[in-house]
Amino acid sequence: VQLVESGGGLVEPGGSLRLSCEASGFSFGSADMGWYRQFPGKEREFVAVISGIGSEAYYIDPVKGRFTISRDNARNTVNLQMDSLKPEDTAVYYCHAMVGVTEIWGQGTQVTVLS
């Protein structure tokens, strides 16, 4: 059971990044998939989630209209397209899966927006 993120990096304000998460070892299409982020010295916070068949998605207010979560169940991947990035988006971003009552986390990928 594994989640592997990729796509983080350094970007200027107003720029874009696309995070990807490849899942393995569980029934991907049955799992709600999400992204969380963690600021230095803070607890991890929810960013976005997408339902198993991709019909529903939810976002926290600060990223609405800028971030888009999507999934490809044929490739067991979930993506987070981040546009109009701001310095306050700087954080480690984690992929998350909820499989029944079991939580699965990726290792995290750093996103840095210059200020």
The helical percent reads under 10%
Computed over alpha carbons, the radius of gyration is 13 Å
| Overall average pLDDT | 96
Q: How much strand?
A: over 45%
Global structural class? mainly beta
Order of helices and strands: EEEEEEEEEEE
Unreliable runs: none
Ends distance:
37 Å
Number of strands: 11
| Major pleated sheet | 7 strands, mixed
Net shape: globular
Q: How many helices? A: 0
Task: Characterise this structure.
The protein contains no helices and eleven strands. By secondary structure, the chain is mainly β. Strands 2, 4, 5, 6, 9, 10 and 11 form a seven-stranded mixed sheet that branches. Strands 1-3-8-7 form a four-stranded antiparallel sheet, with no helix packed on it. Strand 9 (91-99) and strand 10 form a beta hairpin. The mean pLDDT is 96.
List its traits.
mainly beta; 4-stranded antiparallel β-sheet; 115 residues; 7-stranded mixed β-sheet; single chain
Give the structure's gist in a few sentences.
The protein has 115 residues and is an all-beta fold.
How are the secondary structure elements laid out?
Blueprint: E1 2-6, E2 9-11, E3 17-24, E4 32-38, E5 45-50, E6 57-59, E7 67-72, E8 77-82, E9 91-99, E10 102-105, E11 109-113
Parallel strand pairs: 2-11
Antiparallel strand pairs: 1-3, 3-8, 4-5, 4-9, 5-6, 7-8, 9-10, 9-11
